[in-house]
Amino acid sequence: MVFRIVFFLSFLFSQNALAQDPYTINYTINEGFPSNTIYSANQDEKGFLWFTTDVGLVKFDSHKFELFNTDKGISDNEIFQMKTDFKGRTWLLTLSGKLSFIYKNKIYNENNSSLIKQVSGSGIAADFYEDKNHFIYITFRNSQITIINPKNEVAKQKITKNSLAGIWKYHNTICVITGEGIYNSATRKKIKPFEKQSFFKIHHTQ
Fold it and tell me: What is the mean pLDDT of the chain?
């Protein structure tokens, strides 16, 4: 299946003007986009659009596409998500579990960041969550949870042998979801079992 980037441009007219249909532009490989596979799209504070793809991270400035991949310091080309933390670091969650982040226009990886060395996992990086106290939780499909506190101190834990799909906080309890149920990360006990194996993708609203 071919994935297309579609930009909708809304035009404002005076009250006497006739209504117009939205104007759309489709971008594919033929128009310069480097891949037909897009996992997520984000807009930064400067208005630039960023796309995570199977060939790297793509930046669009409304004129051209710029590709950031392993040749430019990204840890893995297959990037599923990008998340920005309270310090302004934009984390890249990858297929291999080897993480990167971009901070002040510089790419950090295991070669130039001791923090990245500590937090990277050996399985798919599945989810990223930051709570109101600025503790960062990164889950990996191999059931590992990496926790980064505001001082960049790192802790790791395993909740279950099952593959982790996502993580969030509910009433001060860190919960993780697997195909078999929801677990309390502190007690490692199952809160909500599922009747049959299920698969999930978590979307955080903040």
Answer: 84
Residue 49, classed as helix, strand or coil, is strand
What SS3 state is found at 183?
Answer: strand
User: For 152, left (φ over 0), alpha (ψ -120 to 50), or beta?
Assistant: left
Sign, CA dihedral 175-85-200-121, equals negative
Between the CA of residue 166 and those of 26, 77, 102, 156, what are the distances in Å? 32, 22, 23, 15
Place of tokens 């993580």: 167
- Listed residue (91, 104, 90) closest to 146, CA to CA: 91
pLDDT, tens digit, 9 for 90 and up, residues 3-30:
455 443 333 333 444 455 566 777 788 8
The number of angstroms, rounded, from the C-alpha of 157 to the middle of its chain's C-alpha atoms is: 21
Q: What is the residue whose two structure tokens read 């759309």?
A: 24
- Burial environment of residue 3 by CB neighbours within 10 A (0 to 12, 13 to 18, 19 or more): middle
Which residues, other chains included, contact 148 with Cβ-Cβ below 8 Å and sequence gap of 6+?
A: 115, 119, 135, 136, 138, 154
